[in-house]
Amino acid sequence: MKGFVRDNHSLSLCGLNCELCPMLLDQYCPGCGGGEGNQSCKIARCSLEHDRVQYCFDCAHYPCEKYDHADDYDSFITHKHRKSDIKRAIDLGISAYTLEQKERSKALRYLLDHFNDGRKKTFFCLAVNLLEIEDVRMAMDRISRFKEENPLLFLKEMSVYACTVFQNIAGERQIELKLRRKK
Q: In this predicted model, what pLDDT tens digit does every residue of 17-65 receive, in sequence order?
């Protein structure tokens, strides 16, 4: 959107974790306020009208009616934890929260580079986004050790193992690693 620019492209204006989104990874979207050509967004327009806040939670009107049903369904990225992620960003502070998102992003890139058989991008994006950071660390440790111990396995077998690790942890936490689509 013309004239809308932000410094932090890890956490969007509305609380989505942009670095964990397949659209940003595929360079179809520069992220919220990522320069000219970024997608038109009603929340970005709202920010321009309200003193160009960097995050919706900085606005005196937050949460407003734009959030009433914004989390009912997912887009390219999950919206499931957006409100809790915003609260975490407020509680930790933006710098600490951004560092946590960078850690998640690094894990995601490793997974995509070494374990994506061409059909797991959305799954890995969801896993690193929806699981707690400690669970992501635990999964990555298991996956990395498995890769080191089994250097001759094919990509498909590595991919299955990585998915199984995340599914098992998600199952223990009663987290479903699927996007919620409108019906």
A: 888 888 878 777 766 766 555 556 777 888 888 777 888 888 888 888 8
Neighbours of 167 (CB within 10 A): 16
Task: Please state the three-class secondary structure of the chain as a single string.
Answer: CCCCECCCCCECCCCCEHHHCHHHHCCCCCCCCECCCCCCCHHHHHHHHCCCCCCHHHCCCCCCHHHCCCCCCCCCCCCCCHHHHHHHHHHHCHHHHHHHHHHHHHHHHHHHHHCCCCCCHHHHHHHHHHCCHHHHHHHHHHHHHHHHHCCCCCHHHHHHHHHHHHHHHHHHCCCCCCCCCCC
Judge contact between 95 and 27, C-beta under 8 A: no
pTM > 0.90: no
